[in-house]
Design a protein that fits this description.
This protein is of the alpha/beta class. It is globular, with a radius of gyration of 18 Å. It has a single domain, classed as TIM Barrel. The strands form 2 sheets. The protein has an 8-stranded parallel β-sheet with strand order 3-4-5-6-7-8-9-10. It has a two-stranded antiparallel sheet with strand order 1-2. The structure holds nicotinamide-adenine-dinucleotide. The site of nicotinamide-adenine-dinucleotide has 24 residues, from α9.
C-alpha cells in the first residue's frame, strides 16, 4: 500500500474500499472483512449509506488492529449545524463501534455547513477525529471555507473517473494543499468504462485489467481512490495496482477521453439541493 500525507501531517492510504449501495448488510459486513484481509486499510462509508453498523462489524471480524486502519464516514445534509453535527458524529461512531474516526467529511455542500464545520473543528481538537474534510465542494465554496474557517479541509472527495477527470479542480486542490479523493472511479460501472477501447488497449499493454489501469492512473495523479465491489475476485484485483506504472503516453492518451462533465449529481443544479 502507498500512503499520502494530508495537510495536517496525517497519512492516508492511496487506495481504499467504498461501500456505497451495499444495502445487503450481511454482504457489506463480509465484503469489509474480505477487503481488509486482502490488504485494504481505508474504508469509506457515510451515515446516508445506512451500513455503518455492518462496516463496524466487518472491521471487528477482520482481526486487524484499529490503528492500522483509516476509517472515513460522512455527515449527511439533514444533520448539518453545530449541535446536530455533534449528535450525528456520536451516532456514527457508535454505529461503527469505534472511539475515534480517521476522517469525517461534510457529504454535501448544502445547509448549515459552517455550523457543521465548527463542530467538526471542536471534535478534531478533542482528538476524536484525525482529519476533517468535505465532499462535493466546488472551488468557490472551498475557497470560502479556506478563507473564513480556522481549520482548512484536509480532503475534498469529488466525482472523478476517466470521463470526468476534474483537471481544473485537481489543480485548484493541489494549489491549496487539499487532497483530491475520487468517488465512483468506475462511474459506478454504468458508463461503459470497462468496454472503452483505449483503456482496453492500455490494459493489454500492461497485462492488467481496465479496472487496474483506471485505479493506477488516478494514483499516479496523486488522487486517492475508493473503488467498490462485493466480489472477492474484484476486491483483490482492485488493490493489485502497486506493481506496474503507466507511462507518459498512457497518461496523455487517457486525458483524451475526458468529457469534463459530471454524469451523476450536478451540484450546481438547484434541484439537487432538495
Ligand atoms: P465505483 O465507481 O467504485 O463502481 C463500482 C462498480 O464497478 C461495482 O458495483 C461493479 O459493478 C464495478 N466494478 C468494481 N470493480 C470492478 C472490476 N474489478 N471489474 C469490473 N467491474 C468492477 O462506484 P461507487 O461505489 O459509486 O464509488 C466508490 C465509492 O465512492 C463508494 O462506494 C463511496 O464510498 C464513494 N462515493 C462517494 C460519493 C460522495 O458523494 N461523496 C458518491 C458516490 C460514491
Amino acid at each position: 500500500m502507498e500512503y499520502i500525507k494530508l495537510n495536517n501531517g496525517v497519512t492516508m492510504p492511496m487506495l481504499g474500499f467504498g461501500v456505497y449501495q451495499m444495502n445487503d448488510l450481511a454482504e457489506c459486513e463480509k465484503s469489509v472483512t474480505d477487503a481488509i484481509q486482502a490488504g485494504y486499510r481505508l474504508i469509506d462509508t457515510a451515515s446516508k449509506y445506512g451500513n455503518e453498523e455492518a462496516v463496524g462489524k466487518g472491521i471487528k471480524n477482520s482481526g486487524v488492529a484499529r490503528e492500522e486502519l483509516f476509517i472515513t464516514t460522512k455527515l449527511w445534509l439533514q444533520d448539518a449545524g453545530y449541535e446536530h453535527t455533534k449528535k450525528a458524529f456520536e451516532l456514527s461512531l457508535k454505529n461503527l463501534g469505534l472511539d475515534y474516526l480517521d476522517l469525517y467529511l461534510i457529504h454535501q455542500p448544502f445547509n448549515d455547513v459552517y455550523g457543521s464545520w465548527r463542530a467538526m473543528e471542536a471534535l478534531y481538537k478533542e482528538g476524536k477525529i484525525r482529519a476533517i474534510g468535505v465532499s462535493n465542494f466546488r472551488p468557490d465554496r472551498l475557497m470560502d471555507f479556506i478563507l473564513y474557517n480556522e481549520i482548512k479541509p484536509a480532503v475534498n472527495q469529488i466525482e472523478t473517473h476517466p470521463f470526468n477527470q476534474q483537471i481544473e479542480n485537481n489543480q485548484f486542490l493541489t494549489d491549496n494543499d487539499i487532497l483530491h479523493q475520487s468517488w465512483s472511479p468506475f462511474g459506478q460501472g454504468k458508463l461503459n468504462v470497462f468496454e472503452n477501447e483505449l483503456l482496453n488497449n492500455i490494459a493489454k499493454k500492461h497485462n492488467k485489467s481496465v479496472a487496474q489501469v483506471v485505479l493506477r492512473w488516478m494514483i499516479q495523479r496523486g488522487i486517492v481512490v475508493i473503488p467498490k465491489s462485493v466480489h472477492l475476485k474484484r476486491i483483490k484485483e482492485n488493490i493489485n495496482v502497486f506493481d506496474f506504472k503507466l507511462d507518459d503516453t498512457d497518461m496523455k492518451d487517457i486525458k483524451s477521453i475526458d468529457t469534463g462533465k459530471s454524469t451523476f449529481k450536478n451540484h450546481t443544479d438547484p434541484e439537487v439541493v432538495k
